[in-house]
Design brief:
2 domains; 12 strands; four-stranded antiparallel beta sheet; mainly beta
């Protein structure tokens, strides 16, 4: 059995504007005794960005940036970039995170050989409205909760709201030559495999996937 020990708070909000409300939900990448921590930082204006800290030993904070590691710049992320997860596949870092524009919550990613010089790769969620998705869901046997969330988000954000897709992370190795991404179209967690990230920007790819969504669920 694994024994856990409470170590207390490691990172807390600061006076820096981008993280003066709260800090939470970190991504962690370990190199020996060094931990690179990329965490969600929230301002008092409730705008999310990503902050960075480096830990040694592994719980001693030896570096913490006073500016965001990644901050909202594009229209589809104007309300925040959130809840990053980092994976190194081969010699490339992939940072998968949520982007929010005030209505839609989708997955996007950044990538690069150098963790501190990542390039935005764009949205990798299905850009399909819930109204259309419900018709695709009907072609497979899904539990009623999927239709509950369809109704909830249409009521919450408007009838043309896109499928909310969150909690994404890449597996650290390809499987049968393909990338594998875990993600969450509520209420379950699904797996999607693909050859190239451009596949995830194709509406037809996602249409076929959603028609057989039940086959892709791996965590209920």
């Amino acid at each position: 059995m694994i024994k856990l020990r409470r170590e207390g708070v490691i990172l807390a909000p600061t006076k820096n504007k981008f993280e003066n409300k709260s800090v939470l939900n970190p991504a962690v990448y370990q190199e020996g005794e060094t931990l690179h921590v990329i965490y969600r930082a929230i301002s008092k204006e409730f705008i999310s960005s990503l902050g960075y800290a480096r830990l040694e030993g592994p719980l001693k904070v030896v570096e913490r940036w006073k500016k965001p590691f990644l901050e909202p710049k594009l229209k589809y992320e104007c309300k925040g970039v959130e809840d990053a997860r980092i994976t190194k596949v081969g010699d490339t870092f992939y940072l998968v995170y949520i982007v929010h524009d005030g209505r839609n919550a989708l997955l996007a990613y950044s990538y690069g050989k150098n963790l501190f010089n990542l390039r935005r790769g764009g949205i990798i969620s299905p850009k399909i409205e819930y109204a259309k998705a419900a018709k695709l869901f009907a072609r497979t046997k899904l539990k009623d909760d999927y239709y509950f969330f369809e109704s909830f988000y249409k009521e919450y954000a408007g009838r043309n709201v896109l499928i909310w897709d969150k909690d994404g992370f890449l597996f650290p190795e390809k499987i049968k030559g393909k990338f594998v991404l875990a993600h969450r179209i509520l209420p379950d967690i699904q797996l999607v495999s693909f050859d190239d990230f451009s596949d995830l920007k194709d509406e037809f790819f996602w249409g076929d996937y959603l028609r057989d969504l039940r086959k892709h669920i791996f965590r209920l």
